[in-house]
Specification:
480 residues, alpha/beta, OB fold (Dihydrolipoamide Acetyltransferase, E2P), Rossmann fold, 3 domains, seven-stranded mixed β-sheet, 10 helices, 21 strands, 24% helix, globular
Protein backbone atom coordinates (compact mmCIF):
# COMPACT_ATOMS: atom_id res chain seq x y z
CA UNK A 1 0.00 0.00 0.00
CA UNK A 2 1.41 3.40 -1.03
CA UNK A 3 1.85 5.90 1.80
CA UNK A 4 0.84 9.53 1.45
CA UNK A 5 4.05 11.32 2.39
CA UNK A 6 2.19 14.60 2.89
CA UNK A 7 1.25 13.22 6.32
CA UNK A 8 4.90 12.97 7.43
CA UNK A 9 7.02 15.52 5.55
CA UNK A 10 6.81 19.21 4.77
CA UNK A 11 8.46 21.46 2.23
CA UNK A 12 11.66 22.81 3.80
CA UNK A 13 12.37 19.72 5.94
CA UNK A 14 16.01 18.60 6.07
CA UNK A 15 16.70 14.92 5.44
CA UNK A 16 19.65 12.53 5.09
CA UNK A 17 19.83 9.60 2.67
CA UNK A 18 22.11 7.45 0.51
CA UNK A 19 21.84 7.72 -3.27
CA UNK A 20 20.98 4.36 -4.82
CA UNK A 21 20.25 5.13 -8.47
CA UNK A 22 20.47 7.68 -11.29
CA UNK A 23 17.19 9.25 -12.44
CA UNK A 24 16.20 11.45 -15.38
CA UNK A 25 16.67 15.22 -15.71
CA UNK A 26 19.91 15.37 -13.72
CA UNK A 27 18.32 13.86 -10.64
CA UNK A 28 19.24 10.88 -8.46
CA UNK A 29 17.15 8.58 -6.31
CA UNK A 30 17.38 7.31 -2.76
CA UNK A 31 15.19 6.16 0.12
CA UNK A 32 14.79 7.38 3.66
CA UNK A 33 14.70 4.96 6.58
CA UNK A 34 10.92 5.45 6.60
CA UNK A 35 10.81 3.95 3.10
CA UNK A 36 9.96 7.21 1.37
CA UNK A 37 11.51 7.56 -2.07
CA UNK A 38 13.32 10.82 -2.82
CA UNK A 39 14.38 12.42 -6.10
CA UNK A 40 17.41 14.60 -5.33
CA UNK A 41 18.87 17.35 -7.51
CA UNK A 42 22.62 17.90 -7.38
CA UNK A 43 25.90 16.58 -8.76
CA UNK A 44 25.65 13.14 -7.19
CA UNK A 45 26.99 9.62 -7.58
CA UNK A 46 25.50 6.27 -6.60
CA UNK A 47 26.62 5.56 -3.05
CA UNK A 48 26.86 9.20 -1.94
CA UNK A 49 25.48 9.89 1.54
CA UNK A 50 23.95 13.37 1.42
CA UNK A 51 21.90 15.89 3.32
CA UNK A 52 19.07 17.49 1.38
CA UNK A 53 16.15 19.87 1.77
CA UNK A 54 12.66 18.89 0.66
CA UNK A 55 11.33 21.11 -2.14
CA UNK A 56 8.11 19.25 -3.00
CA UNK A 57 6.01 16.62 -1.26
CA UNK A 58 4.21 14.30 -3.65
CA UNK A 59 1.75 11.61 -2.64
CA UNK A 60 4.19 8.85 -3.62
CA UNK A 61 7.63 10.44 -3.21
CA UNK A 62 9.57 13.54 -2.22
CA UNK A 63 11.63 15.97 -4.27
CA UNK A 64 14.70 17.56 -2.69
CA UNK A 65 17.90 19.46 -3.42
CA UNK A 66 21.25 18.40 -2.02
CA UNK A 67 22.61 20.69 0.69
CA UNK A 68 25.76 18.78 1.60
CA UNK A 69 27.89 15.71 0.90
CA UNK A 70 28.19 13.69 4.11
CA UNK A 71 30.08 10.67 2.79
CA UNK A 72 31.36 10.37 -0.79
CA UNK A 73 30.70 7.34 -2.98
CA UNK A 74 33.54 5.10 -4.12
CA UNK A 75 32.50 6.10 -7.67
CA UNK A 76 33.24 9.77 -7.03
CA UNK A 77 36.37 11.49 -8.43
CA UNK A 78 37.65 15.06 -8.49
CA UNK A 79 36.33 16.80 -11.66
CA UNK A 80 39.07 18.11 -13.93
CA UNK A 81 37.26 21.28 -15.03
CA UNK A 82 37.02 24.27 -12.67
CA UNK A 83 33.65 25.15 -14.24
CA UNK A 84 32.13 21.80 -13.24
CA UNK A 85 28.79 22.21 -11.51
CA UNK A 86 28.17 25.57 -13.19
CA UNK A 87 28.68 24.73 -16.86
CA UNK A 88 25.92 22.39 -17.96
CA UNK A 89 28.00 20.36 -20.39
CA UNK A 90 29.78 17.63 -18.40
CA UNK A 91 27.42 16.72 -15.58
CA UNK A 92 29.07 13.36 -14.87
CA UNK A 93 32.67 14.58 -14.65
CA UNK A 94 32.62 13.88 -10.90
CA UNK A 95 32.04 10.16 -11.59
CA UNK A 96 34.86 7.78 -12.51
CA UNK A 97 34.74 6.61 -16.12
CA UNK A 98 34.17 2.92 -15.35
CA UNK A 99 31.23 3.93 -13.13
CA UNK A 100 29.84 6.15 -15.90
CA UNK A 101 29.72 3.12 -18.19
CA UNK A 102 27.84 1.09 -15.56
CA UNK A 103 25.35 3.91 -15.03
CA UNK A 104 24.67 4.15 -18.76
CA UNK A 105 24.20 0.41 -19.16
CA UNK A 106 21.66 0.44 -16.33
CA UNK A 107 19.94 3.49 -17.81
CA UNK A 108 19.29 1.57 -21.04
CA UNK A 109 18.16 -1.56 -19.21
CA UNK A 110 15.80 0.40 -16.93
CA UNK A 111 14.19 2.14 -19.90
CA UNK A 112 13.61 -1.12 -21.76
CA UNK A 113 12.11 -2.79 -18.69
CA UNK A 114 10.06 0.04 -17.19
CA UNK A 115 8.96 1.89 -20.35
CA UNK A 116 9.09 -0.82 -23.01
CA UNK A 117 7.92 -3.69 -20.83
CA UNK A 118 10.75 -5.95 -22.04
CA UNK A 119 11.76 -8.85 -19.80
CA UNK A 120 14.92 -10.97 -19.73
CA UNK A 121 16.67 -8.68 -22.19
CA UNK A 122 20.47 -8.65 -22.05
CA UNK A 123 21.99 -5.19 -22.39
CA UNK A 124 25.65 -5.61 -23.19
CA UNK A 125 28.33 -3.57 -21.43
CA UNK A 126 28.76 -0.11 -22.93
CA UNK A 127 31.52 0.12 -25.53
CA UNK A 128 33.96 2.68 -24.07
CA UNK A 129 36.17 5.30 -25.71
CA UNK A 130 39.92 4.87 -25.46
CA UNK A 131 40.55 8.41 -24.21
CA UNK A 132 37.50 10.14 -22.67
CA UNK A 133 38.93 13.67 -23.05
CA UNK A 134 39.27 16.13 -25.97
CA UNK A 135 37.11 13.86 -28.13
CA UNK A 136 34.80 16.43 -29.74
CA UNK A 137 35.47 17.44 -33.34
CA UNK A 138 33.02 20.34 -33.05
CA UNK A 139 32.52 22.84 -30.23
CA UNK A 140 30.18 25.83 -30.33
CA UNK A 141 30.83 28.86 -28.12
CA UNK A 142 28.43 31.76 -27.59
CA UNK A 143 29.20 35.43 -27.02
CA UNK A 144 27.03 37.56 -24.75
CA UNK A 145 26.89 41.04 -23.26
CA UNK A 146 25.88 39.45 -19.94
CA UNK A 147 28.50 37.27 -18.27
CA UNK A 148 27.34 34.63 -15.84
CA UNK A 149 28.78 35.69 -12.49
CA UNK A 150 30.47 33.09 -10.32
CA UNK A 151 29.16 32.46 -6.77
CA UNK A 152 32.21 34.12 -5.18
CA UNK A 153 31.60 37.25 -7.29
CA UNK A 154 27.99 37.40 -6.16
CA UNK A 155 28.98 36.95 -2.52
CA UNK A 156 31.71 39.62 -2.47
CA UNK A 157 30.38 41.98 -5.14
CA UNK A 158 33.89 42.05 -6.65
CA UNK A 159 34.03 41.05 -10.33
CA UNK A 160 37.02 38.97 -11.45
CA UNK A 161 36.59 40.29 -15.01
CA UNK A 162 34.18 42.61 -16.84
CA UNK A 163 30.56 41.58 -16.61
CA UNK A 164 29.56 42.89 -20.04
CA UNK A 165 31.50 40.39 -22.18
CA UNK A 166 31.63 36.61 -22.17
CA UNK A 167 32.72 33.99 -24.70
CA UNK A 168 31.88 30.47 -23.61
CA UNK A 169 28.80 28.35 -22.94
CA UNK A 170 25.28 29.33 -22.00
CA UNK A 171 24.61 28.66 -18.35
CA UNK A 172 21.95 25.93 -17.84
CA UNK A 173 18.42 27.21 -18.29
CA UNK A 174 19.55 30.73 -19.20
CA UNK A 175 19.39 31.83 -22.84
CA UNK A 176 20.86 35.25 -22.08
CA UNK A 177 23.89 34.75 -19.82
CA UNK A 178 27.09 33.05 -20.90
CA UNK A 179 29.67 31.41 -18.66
CA UNK A 180 33.17 32.54 -19.62
CA UNK A 181 35.23 29.45 -20.53
CA UNK A 182 39.03 29.58 -20.62
CA UNK A 183 39.43 25.94 -21.64
CA UNK A 184 37.02 23.17 -22.57
CA UNK A 185 38.25 19.71 -21.59
CA UNK A 186 36.26 18.06 -24.39
CA UNK A 187 37.76 20.30 -27.09
CA UNK A 188 41.15 19.80 -28.73
CA UNK A 189 44.20 21.89 -27.83
CA UNK A 190 43.95 23.72 -31.17
CA UNK A 191 40.30 24.59 -30.51
CA UNK A 192 41.15 25.97 -27.08
CA UNK A 193 43.98 28.01 -28.57
CA UNK A 194 41.63 29.47 -31.22
CA UNK A 195 39.16 30.32 -28.45
CA UNK A 196 41.82 32.21 -26.52
CA UNK A 197 43.00 34.11 -29.60
CA UNK A 198 39.43 35.07 -30.55
CA UNK A 199 38.65 36.33 -27.06
CA UNK A 200 41.81 38.43 -26.99
CA UNK A 201 41.09 39.86 -30.44
CA UNK A 202 37.48 40.69 -29.55
CA UNK A 203 38.47 42.51 -26.36
CA UNK A 204 41.31 44.40 -28.05
CA UNK A 205 39.07 45.54 -30.92
CA UNK A 206 36.18 46.24 -28.53
CA UNK A 207 33.83 44.09 -30.57
CA UNK A 208 30.30 44.46 -29.21
CA UNK A 209 29.01 41.13 -27.84
CA UNK A 210 25.53 40.01 -28.79
CA UNK A 211 22.68 41.11 -26.49
CA UNK A 212 19.78 38.69 -26.86
CA UNK A 213 16.96 40.83 -25.50
CA UNK A 214 17.98 43.97 -27.38
CA UNK A 215 19.01 42.01 -30.49
CA UNK A 216 22.13 44.12 -30.82
CA UNK A 217 25.86 43.55 -30.92
CA UNK A 218 28.37 42.26 -33.46
CA UNK A 219 30.01 39.06 -32.16
CA UNK A 220 27.55 36.19 -31.76
CA UNK A 221 29.27 32.79 -31.87
CA UNK A 222 32.53 30.97 -32.42
CA UNK A 223 32.15 27.50 -33.92
CA UNK A 224 35.28 25.36 -34.10
CA UNK A 225 35.65 22.08 -35.97
CA UNK A 226 38.75 19.93 -36.29
CA UNK A 227 39.37 16.85 -38.38
CA UNK A 228 40.68 14.08 -36.13
CA UNK A 229 42.32 12.27 -39.05
CA UNK A 230 43.62 15.21 -41.14
CA UNK A 231 44.19 17.76 -38.30
CA UNK A 232 42.46 20.51 -40.30
CA UNK A 233 40.96 23.25 -38.11
CA UNK A 234 37.90 25.27 -39.15
CA UNK A 235 37.26 28.57 -37.43
CA UNK A 236 33.75 29.87 -38.06
CA UNK A 237 33.13 33.29 -36.51
CA UNK A 238 29.44 34.18 -36.49
CA UNK A 239 28.62 37.89 -36.56
CA UNK A 240 25.68 40.22 -37.21
CA UNK A 241 27.34 41.79 -40.24
CA UNK A 242 30.38 41.30 -42.46
CA UNK A 243 33.42 43.54 -42.11
CA UNK A 244 36.06 42.45 -44.64
CA UNK A 245 38.86 44.60 -43.18
CA UNK A 246 38.21 43.34 -39.64
CA UNK A 247 38.07 39.72 -40.83
CA UNK A 248 41.44 40.14 -42.56
CA UNK A 249 42.92 41.36 -39.27
CA UNK A 250 41.34 38.41 -37.45
CA UNK A 251 42.80 36.02 -40.02
CA UNK A 252 46.27 37.45 -39.56
CA UNK A 253 45.99 37.22 -35.78
CA UNK A 254 45.01 33.55 -35.90
CA UNK A 255 47.73 32.61 -38.39
CA UNK A 256 50.37 34.44 -36.35
CA UNK A 257 49.27 32.84 -33.08
CA UNK A 258 48.96 29.30 -34.50
CA UNK A 259 51.90 28.78 -36.90
CA UNK A 260 51.93 25.44 -38.63
CA UNK A 261 48.28 24.68 -37.92
CA UNK A 262 46.31 23.70 -41.04
CA UNK A 263 43.34 26.03 -40.99
CA UNK A 264 40.38 27.47 -42.83
CA UNK A 265 38.43 30.50 -41.62
CA UNK A 266 34.87 31.50 -42.54
CA UNK A 267 32.52 34.24 -41.39
CA UNK A 268 28.85 33.31 -41.05
CA UNK A 269 26.53 36.32 -40.88
CA UNK A 270 23.02 36.24 -39.45
CA UNK A 271 20.37 38.80 -38.53
CA UNK A 272 18.03 36.28 -36.87
CA UNK A 273 16.67 37.02 -33.42
CA UNK A 274 17.98 33.83 -31.85
CA UNK A 275 21.20 32.24 -30.60
CA UNK A 276 21.51 29.58 -33.32
CA UNK A 277 25.03 29.64 -34.75
CA UNK A 278 24.05 29.26 -38.41
CA UNK A 279 24.47 32.14 -40.83
CA UNK A 280 22.12 33.32 -43.55
CA UNK A 281 25.21 34.07 -45.62
CA UNK A 282 28.82 32.90 -45.45
CA UNK A 283 32.03 34.71 -46.40
CA UNK A 284 35.35 32.90 -46.96
CA UNK A 285 38.17 34.50 -44.98
CA UNK A 286 41.02 32.04 -45.40
CA UNK A 287 41.46 28.66 -47.08
CA UNK A 288 38.94 26.43 -48.81
CA UNK A 289 36.03 26.97 -46.44
CA UNK A 290 35.73 23.29 -45.55
CA UNK A 291 37.69 20.51 -43.87
CA UNK A 292 37.96 16.85 -44.75
CA UNK A 293 37.37 13.99 -42.33
CA UNK A 294 37.94 10.28 -42.85
CA UNK A 295 35.53 7.85 -41.27
CA UNK A 296 35.90 4.10 -41.79
CA UNK A 297 38.20 4.72 -44.81
CA UNK A 298 35.61 7.02 -46.39
CA UNK A 299 36.23 10.69 -47.16
CA UNK A 300 33.75 13.38 -46.17
CA UNK A 301 33.89 17.06 -46.95
CA UNK A 302 32.53 19.11 -44.06
CA UNK A 303 31.41 22.71 -44.43
CA UNK A 304 30.64 25.13 -41.61
CA UNK A 305 26.99 24.10 -41.24
CA UNK A 306 27.18 20.42 -42.22
CA UNK A 307 26.04 17.73 -39.80
CA UNK A 308 28.72 15.21 -38.87
CA UNK A 309 29.19 12.88 -35.92
CA UNK A 310 30.96 14.93 -33.23
CA UNK A 311 33.07 12.01 -31.96
CA UNK A 312 34.93 10.74 -35.02
CA UNK A 313 36.81 7.81 -33.49
CA UNK A 314 33.82 6.47 -31.59
CA UNK A 315 31.59 6.87 -34.66
CA UNK A 316 33.68 4.12 -36.27
CA UNK A 317 32.89 1.87 -33.30
CA UNK A 318 29.20 2.73 -33.70
CA UNK A 319 29.19 1.99 -37.43
CA UNK A 320 31.02 -1.31 -36.94
CA UNK A 321 28.27 -2.26 -34.48
CA UNK A 322 25.58 -1.35 -37.02
CA UNK A 323 27.29 -3.49 -39.64
CA UNK A 324 27.51 -6.51 -37.34
CA UNK A 325 23.85 -6.28 -36.35
CA UNK A 326 22.71 -5.78 -39.95
CA UNK A 327 24.53 -8.95 -41.06
CA UNK A 328 24.29 -7.89 -44.68
CA UNK A 329 24.79 -10.24 -47.59
CA UNK A 330 26.10 -9.26 -51.03
CA UNK A 331 22.65 -9.72 -52.62
CA UNK A 332 20.67 -7.66 -50.08
CA UNK A 333 19.11 -4.19 -50.26
CA UNK A 334 19.27 -1.98 -47.17
CA UNK A 335 17.34 1.22 -46.49
CA UNK A 336 18.94 3.85 -44.22
CA UNK A 337 16.23 6.08 -42.72
CA UNK A 338 17.13 9.63 -41.63
CA UNK A 339 20.38 9.25 -43.56
CA UNK A 340 21.53 12.89 -43.29
CA UNK A 341 24.70 13.34 -45.35
CA UNK A 342 24.93 9.61 -45.99
CA UNK A 343 27.70 8.41 -43.66
CA UNK A 344 25.91 5.21 -42.57
CA UNK A 345 24.46 4.61 -46.06
CA UNK A 346 27.90 4.70 -47.66
CA UNK A 347 29.42 2.52 -44.97
CA UNK A 348 26.73 -0.14 -45.52
CA UNK A 349 27.00 0.06 -49.32
CA UNK A 350 30.35 -1.74 -49.28
CA UNK A 351 28.73 -4.92 -47.93
CA UNK A 352 25.49 -5.26 -49.90
CA UNK A 353 23.90 -5.09 -53.34
CA UNK A 354 22.54 -1.58 -52.85
CA UNK A 355 22.15 0.90 -50.02
CA UNK A 356 19.33 3.46 -50.17
CA UNK A 357 19.43 6.58 -47.98
CA UNK A 358 16.14 8.35 -47.19
CA UNK A 359 16.04 11.90 -45.89
CA UNK A 360 13.53 14.78 -46.02
CA UNK A 361 16.12 17.61 -46.06
CA UNK A 362 17.05 18.45 -49.64
CA UNK A 363 20.49 19.93 -48.83
CA UNK A 364 21.45 16.78 -46.92
CA UNK A 365 20.51 14.64 -49.92
CA UNK A 366 22.76 16.82 -52.11
CA UNK A 367 25.66 16.42 -49.65
CA UNK A 368 25.10 12.66 -49.49
CA UNK A 369 25.22 12.32 -53.27
CA UNK A 370 28.43 14.36 -53.37
CA UNK A 371 29.97 12.14 -50.68
CA UNK A 372 29.06 9.05 -52.73
CA UNK A 373 30.75 10.59 -55.77
CA UNK A 374 33.87 11.55 -53.80
CA UNK A 375 34.24 8.00 -52.51
CA UNK A 376 33.50 6.30 -55.83
CA UNK A 377 30.53 4.36 -54.43
CA UNK A 378 28.05 3.61 -57.19
CA UNK A 379 25.63 1.32 -55.37
CA UNK A 380 24.46 3.95 -52.87
CA UNK A 381 21.38 5.95 -53.86
CA UNK A 382 19.69 8.79 -52.01
CA UNK A 383 16.00 9.53 -52.06
CA UNK A 384 14.19 12.56 -50.67
CA UNK A 385 11.06 11.46 -48.86
CA UNK A 386 8.83 12.26 -45.91
CA UNK A 387 8.74 9.02 -43.93
CA UNK A 388 5.41 9.97 -42.36
CA UNK A 389 3.67 9.36 -45.71
CA UNK A 390 3.99 5.84 -47.13
CA UNK A 391 2.86 6.92 -50.58
CA UNK A 392 6.01 9.07 -50.97
CA UNK A 393 8.03 5.85 -51.09
CA UNK A 394 6.07 4.12 -53.84
CA UNK A 395 8.31 5.40 -56.63
CA UNK A 396 11.41 4.31 -54.76
CA UNK A 397 9.92 0.85 -54.13
CA UNK A 398 9.18 0.47 -57.84
CA UNK A 399 12.77 1.44 -58.70
CA UNK A 400 14.79 -0.34 -56.01
CA UNK A 401 12.47 -2.95 -54.54
CA UNK A 402 11.70 -3.60 -50.86
CA UNK A 403 14.46 -3.71 -48.23
CA UNK A 404 15.70 -6.87 -46.55
CA UNK A 405 17.27 -4.73 -43.80
CA UNK A 406 16.35 -1.26 -42.49
CA UNK A 407 18.71 0.90 -40.43
CA UNK A 408 17.06 3.86 -38.74
CA UNK A 409 18.85 6.65 -36.87
CA UNK A 410 16.08 9.10 -35.94
CA UNK A 411 16.53 12.47 -34.19
CA UNK A 412 16.58 12.65 -30.40
CA UNK A 413 12.80 13.07 -30.25
CA UNK A 414 12.44 9.59 -31.78
CA UNK A 415 10.46 8.39 -34.78
CA UNK A 416 7.17 10.01 -35.64
CA UNK A 417 4.42 7.38 -35.08
CA UNK A 418 3.49 7.50 -38.78
CA UNK A 419 7.15 7.09 -39.79
CA UNK A 420 7.43 4.06 -37.53
CA UNK A 421 4.33 2.58 -39.13
CA UNK A 422 5.87 3.22 -42.56
CA UNK A 423 9.02 1.35 -41.49
CA UNK A 424 7.23 -1.78 -40.28
CA UNK A 425 4.91 -1.67 -43.29
CA UNK A 426 8.00 -2.16 -45.48
CA UNK A 427 8.37 -5.55 -43.72
CA UNK A 428 12.17 -5.95 -43.69
CA UNK A 429 13.59 -9.17 -42.23
CA UNK A 430 15.70 -7.10 -39.82
CA UNK A 431 15.60 -3.61 -38.31
CA UNK A 432 18.65 -1.97 -36.71
CA UNK A 433 17.59 0.97 -34.56
CA UNK A 434 20.22 3.58 -33.60
CA UNK A 435 19.02 5.71 -30.71
CA UNK A 436 20.47 8.48 -28.53
CA UNK A 437 17.55 8.40 -26.06
CA UNK A 438 16.87 5.08 -24.27
CA UNK A 439 13.31 6.10 -23.41
CA UNK A 440 12.46 6.55 -27.09
CA UNK A 441 14.10 3.24 -27.96
CA UNK A 442 11.93 1.55 -25.34
CA UNK A 443 8.71 3.16 -26.59
CA UNK A 444 9.44 2.60 -30.28
CA UNK A 445 10.81 -0.89 -29.61
CA UNK A 446 7.58 -1.86 -27.87
CA UNK A 447 5.59 -0.69 -30.89
CA UNK A 448 7.91 -2.51 -33.34
CA UNK A 449 7.52 -5.76 -31.40
CA UNK A 450 3.75 -5.34 -31.51
CA UNK A 451 4.06 -5.60 -35.31
CA UNK A 452 5.48 -9.15 -35.50
CA UNK A 453 9.08 -8.38 -34.55
CA UNK A 454 11.25 -9.42 -31.60
CA UNK A 455 14.13 -7.60 -29.92
CA UNK A 456 17.33 -9.63 -30.37
CA UNK A 457 20.34 -7.52 -29.33
CA UNK A 458 21.04 -4.34 -27.41
CA UNK A 459 24.48 -2.72 -27.51
CA UNK A 460 25.11 0.71 -25.91
CA UNK A 461 28.02 2.80 -27.22
CA UNK A 462 29.57 5.67 -25.28
CA UNK A 463 29.80 8.61 -27.68
CA UNK A 464 29.88 11.37 -25.06
CA UNK A 465 31.93 10.62 -21.91
CA UNK A 466 31.25 12.76 -18.80
CA UNK A 467 27.63 13.29 -19.88
CA UNK A 468 24.50 11.22 -19.24
CA UNK A 469 23.99 10.66 -22.98
CA UNK A 470 24.37 7.16 -24.39
CA UNK A 471 23.95 5.87 -27.93
CA UNK A 472 22.27 2.48 -28.23
CA UNK A 473 22.08 -0.05 -31.05
CA UNK A 474 19.17 -2.48 -31.05
CA UNK A 475 18.33 -5.16 -33.62
CA UNK A 476 14.85 -6.53 -34.28
CA UNK A 477 14.00 -9.55 -36.45
CA UNK A 478 10.68 -10.35 -38.07
CA UNK A 479 8.76 -13.26 -36.55
CA UNK A 480 5.96 -13.64 -39.09
Amino acid sequence: MEHNHRDHYRKGDFIELTISDIAEKDQCFGRLESGAGVLVRGMLAVGDRVSAQVTKVRSGYLEAVMTGLLEPSADRVDPACPAFGICGGCKWMHVGYEAQLRYKQKKVLDALEHIGGFRDIEVRPVLPVEIPWHYRNKVEFSCSSRRYLMPCELETGVLAKPGDFALGFHSPGNFEKVLEIERCYLATDAMNRALSVTRGFALEKKLAPYAVREHSGFLRNLVLRQSRTQDDLMVNIVTSSHDAVLMAEYRDRLLEAMPGQKMTIVNNVTSRRNTVAVGESEYPVYGSGFIEERLCDLRFRISANSFFQTNTLQAEVLYDGIMKMAGLGQDETVYDLYCGTGTITLYLARRCLRSIGLEIVESSIADARENARRNGIGNACFYQADLKDFHTLLGMLDEFGPPSVIVTDPPRAGMHPKALQTMVRLRPEKIVYVCCNPANLARDGKEICAQDYRLDEVQPVDMFPHTSHVETLASFSRTA
